[in-house]
Write a structure and sequence with these properties.
The protein is an all-alpha fold and 67 residues long. The protein has one domain (2-27, 36-63). Helix content is 73%, strand content 0%. The protein has two helices and no strands. The chain is elongated and about 75 Å long.
Length: 67
């Protein structure tokens, strides 16, 4: 039971920072507690939205038959 508890604690300590980085969308082994600049975060989200809009528009153009 002692080994299990130690392994569980070690697993939580190792996986928590990796999970935080994964949720933020940053490299897995970077500092999970570093604050991101708001402008950088806004730019990243805007670029992601632009990419999604462009792919959606391209997909819609393919489904509409030409006149």
């Amino acid at each position: 039971m002692k080994n299990f508890s130690l392994g569980l604690l070690l697993g939580i300590v190792v996986s928590m920072p990796i999970g935080v980085n994964l949720g933020k969308g940053v490299p897995l082994l970077s500092n999970p507690f570093a604050s991101q600049n708001t402008m950088e975060q806004l730019r990243r989200v805007a670029l992601n939205m632009e990419k999604q809009v462009r792919t959606t528009i391209a997909a819609q153009k393919k489904t509409i038959p030409p006149d």
